[in-house]
Write a structure and sequence with these properties.
Distance between the termini: 29 Å
Largest sheet: 6 strands, antiparallel, barrel
Number of helices: 4
Shape: globular
Number of domains: 1
Strand content: 35-45%
Helix content: 10-25%
Radius of gyration: 18 Å
Structural class: alpha+beta
CATH superfamily: Electron Transport, Fmn-binding Protein, Chain A
CATH class: Mainly Beta
Order of helices and strands: EHEEEHEEHEHE
């Protein structure tokens, strides 16, 4: 299968400072699609609200203790977390492992008023944390405005070439490595 991202400069590897900036951008998106594998092998995704990201890239989500997500992560901790901000041309996908954590101190630290729509306070026994430890993070971002991107794409189409870096860059990193 051909690589469709060849024009996105796959040689980018995020520095530690760039990684921090990427995590900040992901936190601004807040909503992620978390994908797990079911017992029959099918992939299952659901939107979840990112509660926080540690300096090492560990992501935290609130979840109910007894859910399909819980069953799937206990059976196979491999998962993917994807963020998309089309207005900002920012996309981030993190593949790693999920674990359920019952840490009331951490829950209290992450608690916000909107969580009360789903749970009866930070001491709700049904409230758990999903901790995601990413092994690999891929990101796509553009440093140029939409008009510049469009001009680059039109020029590339007209000259039968690939657009340059102005349409975006793809990079990756391995947190904690």
């Amino acid at each position: 299968m051909a690589n469709n991202d060849s024009h996105l400069h796959d040689d980018e590897v995020a520095s530690p400072d760039e990684q921090k900036e990427l995590w900040k951008r992901a936190q601004k998106v807040r909503f992620a699609m978390v994908t797990t594998r079911g017992a029959d092998g099918t992939l299952s995704s659901r939107p979840m609200t990112l509660q926080g990201v540690d300096d090492d890239g560990t992501m935290w989500f609130f979840t109910a203790a007894n859910t399909q997500l819980g069953d799937e992560v206990r059976r196979d901790p491999s998962l993917n977390v994807a963020f998309a901000n089309t207005a900002d041309d920012f996309y981030l996908a993190a593949a790693g492992n999920g674990h359920f954590v019952d840490d009331r101190e951490k829950i209290e630290a992450l608690w916000g008023v909107l969580a009360a729509a789903w749970f009866d306070g930070p001491n709700d026994p049904n409230l758990w944390l999903l901790r995601v430890d990413p092994d690999r993070v891929d990101y796509w971002k553009s440093g140029a405005g939409k008009i510049i991107q469009m001009v680059a794409m039109v020029k590339a189409a007209m000259t039968n070439t690939r657009p340059g870096k102005s349409v975006g860059e793809h990079g990756s990193f391995e947190p904690r490595h």
